[in-house]
Specification:
Elements (H helix, E strand, L loop, with lengths): L2 H17 L13 H7 L4 E2 L30 H4 L17 H8 L3 H10 L5 H4 L7 E2 L5 E5 L4 H6 L6 H10 L9 E5 L13 H18 L3 E5 L1 H8 L5 H4 L3 E4 L8 E6 L2 H6 L4 H19 L2
The structure holds uracil.
Uracil (URA) binds next to helix 8.
Amino acid sequence: MRDGDSTAAVLAALAWQIEAGADEAIDIVPADRFAVAAEAPVRVEPTLAAPNRAAATSDHAALRDDEPPQTARPRLADAAPGPVLLRAAPPALVDTPAHSLARAARSLDELREALMAFDGCPLKDTATNLVFADGNPESRVMIVGEAPGADEDRAGKPFVGISGQLLDRMLAPIGLDRTSVYITNIIFWRPPGNRQPTTAEVAACLPFVERHIELANPDVLMLTGGASAKTLLARNEGIMRLRGRWFLYESTGMSRPIPALPTFHPAFLLRQPAQKREAWRDLLALSEKLGELAHP
Ligand code: URA
């Protein structure tokens, strides 16, 4: 990092802390939070098979970010001591027209074209624009949110509204911005009135989201909000339980699993600013993981 970059990152970190309410020094000697984060144990958890993914978002309430923690059904995978990975189902088991269309895309441009031609998600009829992605497709970090809102629908880009502005302020302290992250959603068209996407809408978009991740091939996924985390990791727990834990994400067209970190959605943080403290921990964990992967 150049000197100017690190000063900008420190200033952004300070601004972020003040915004989160940490506007007073409590101790005489400052604590090195980066060092504290480095000591925290990192647990890598498995994901489940692809056909169950859409079912993970089975009702409206399940998609809320601020839901109380749910009691997770015990699973074999949960009891596994180490980083066990349950592989996604082989392609033959998942062969809808959407899967075929998505799988045929050999580049991000082709995937965008495939979505433009896809008529299997009724949200397309009410939306103004396809909201495909923003940022740098070569980036090591891919952020996957929920669904476009009104601003995103107008601009045809994800996270350009108030949530996106907060997302930018969250990324700046760890030295990331839209030139160094790639951003998309699990839903490519705005749900009318910003309602939560239905299970069917999530399922319709999922083959394209999976292909999107395969083609972008990032080092790390950051899943913002319960809908994104539960869908892509095929977990039943709410975001309160999922956030801050490392999972391994994999789909059939990937050569290797990718570490995936669920965290709070910026829209949730706007409603619950006290949770920014936990979000900051997640950002530090993300930064640390990028360092580890760059210097194994
Ligand atoms: N919220 C999201 O999850 N995605 C967007 O693109 C905008 C708001």
